[in-house]
UniProtKB/TrEMBL annotation:
Residues 213-397 form the HDOD domain. PANTHER family: CYCLIC DI-GMP PHOSPHODIESTERASE CDGJ, PTHR33525. Residues 1-219 form the EAL domain. The lineage of its organism: Bacteria, Bacillati, Actinomycetota, Actinomycetes, Micromonosporales. InterPro entries: dGMP_Pdiesterase_EAL/HD-GYP, EAL_dom, EAL_sf, HDOD, RNase_Y/CdgJ. It holds the Pfam family HDOD. This is HDOD domain-containing protein. It comes from Dactylosporangium maewongense.
Length: 421
């Protein structure tokens, strides 16, 4: 059995995710949208890659690391997509109201792409064409698109005018002047009647960063197997989610994104699974398999899971549901790991108010459980002497047994997950 100190180390910089957001303005100078772009580091001035992995990382980060509202608020969100997403090889685990799907100019438009985009539009997604050039092969998508972006930096004025004229044959299209770098280019875009404007002269991409703890790959593979079973069981899926701290937090944030307009809060992992639904969870897990390029620190994962399980074991004596205490202990531990106040950690998550209150103020029986678990695990590497810890929820001997049970349970889980690695 490995020794648990309960003291969290600061997350490695390899586990920081960066998403850049560049604003898009209307003719009145009001920011109405933002385009999300993958960045490998905060000093990057351009996208490092434009393949499906980069797209997957943007989607996972935007919806489950940051929360889409934190990045774009109530404005439109433009996201670049590659062929794999357009043709259904990779899933889009969000509904059509949450993002504008931007089709890259490098995408070869054939029957498969047209059919895929047609299906997406019929499902309620909004489509934008990036870097449209007449004769470039993207004309079959013009009837399906809502937005068309035209490059104002690399195209000559006659080329820009030709692209505008082609698009104006379709009265429903809204034109976006992109890569605006000079006042002359901006004036030309206004003269030609563009509806929207994007470029460094108006606003450079702003990089947003947050710490991420990548879920264990084997957990996700096993979960994907369980999700694809004909008789998929919600309780089994919830148990698998609960084994991974990072995945739980990601799906909580995805629940918030998926539940726009849904008056529903969650207080357990099972609630999260029910709100998202098995199909949506399957889509997110698939995308995370593509997106995660690094693995979480096993010791960090272990410490977080021990705190969550410890809280769950303490809950019974306090009259608190164990599944509620589990998710409370998990979020409390992640707040410590990320060195973030609990109120920031839970911001935007669709949590039950009692759980939020316990995490942010420490009040109530659940607050006592979480405070006891935290105090016990953060004092020292030595087993604390009897009577030195808060015992609002249980006696000291029972608390020691609960802690050891949490360690054994977590070690068993992690040993099972790594047995085949």
């Amino acid at each position: 059995m490995r020794e648990h100190t309960g003291a969290f180390r600061g997350p490695d910089t390899d586990h920081v995710v960066h998403v850049a957001r560049q604003p898009i303005y209307d003719r009145d100078g009001i920011m109405v949208a933002g385009e999300l772009l993958f960045r490998a580091r905060t000093t990057a001035t351009g996208a490092d890659r434009s393949d499906s992995v980069a797209t997957a990382r943007v989607l996972v980060a935007a919806f489950t690391e940051f929360g889409i509202r934190e990045l774009t608020g109530d404005r439109l969100c433009f996201v670049n997509l590659t062929r794999d997403f357009l043709t259904g090889r990779l899933p889009l685990p969000f509904d059509g109201s949450q993002a504008v799907l931007e089709i890259l100019e490098s995408t070869t438009v054939d029957d498969e792409v047209v059919d895929g985009v047609t299906a997406l539009v019929e499902q309620g997604y909004t489509v934008a064409l990036d870097d449209f050039v007449p004769g470039g092969g993207h004309e079959p998508l013009l009837p399906l698109a809502t937005y068309v972006k035209i490059d104002m930096l690399h195209a000559s004025e006659p080329e820009v005018r030709a692209a505008v004229a082609e698009c104006r044959r379709f009265g429903h299209l809204r034109l976006v002047a992109e890569r605006l770098e000079t006042p002359d280019a901006l004036r030309l875009a206004f003269t030609l009647g563009f509806e929207l404007f994007q470029g460094n002269i108006l606003g450079r991409p702003h990089i947003n960063s947050t710490v991420t703890l990548a879920p264990a790959r084997l957990t996700r593979l096993r979960m994907l197997q369980a999700l694809t079973a004909e008789d998929a069981d919600i309780d089994e899926i919830a148990a698998l989610v609960a084994e991974d701290a990072a995945l739980t937090l990601r799906l909580l944030r995805a629940t918030n994104s998926a539940a726009l307009g849904l008056n529903r809060t969650v207080s357990s992992v099972r609630d999260t699974v029910v709100v998202l639904g098995l199909d949506r969870i399957r889509q997110w897990v698939t995308l995370m398999l593509v997106a995660d390029l690094t693995e979480a620190d096993p010791e960090q994962l272990s410490d977080v899971l021990v705190r969550a399980r410890f809280s769950q074991f303490l809950a019974g004596a306090a009259g608190v549901p164990g599944d509620v205490a589990y998710i409370g202990g998990l979020l409390s531990a992640l707040a410590d790991l990320y060195d973030e106040p609990a109120n920031r950690m839970v911001h935007g998550l669709p949590l039950d108010p009692v759980l939020v209150d316990a995490l942010t103020t420490g009040r109530g029986p659940l607050g006592d459980v979480l405070a006891t678990a935290r105090a016990y695990m953060t004092q020292s590497a030595e087993m604390p002497p009897a009577g030195s810890l808060p015992t609002q929820t249980t006696g000291t001997e029972d608390m020691v047994m609960a802690y050891l049970s949490a360690v054994r349970s977590t070690n068993a889980t992690l040993a099972e997950l790594t047995a085949d690695v």
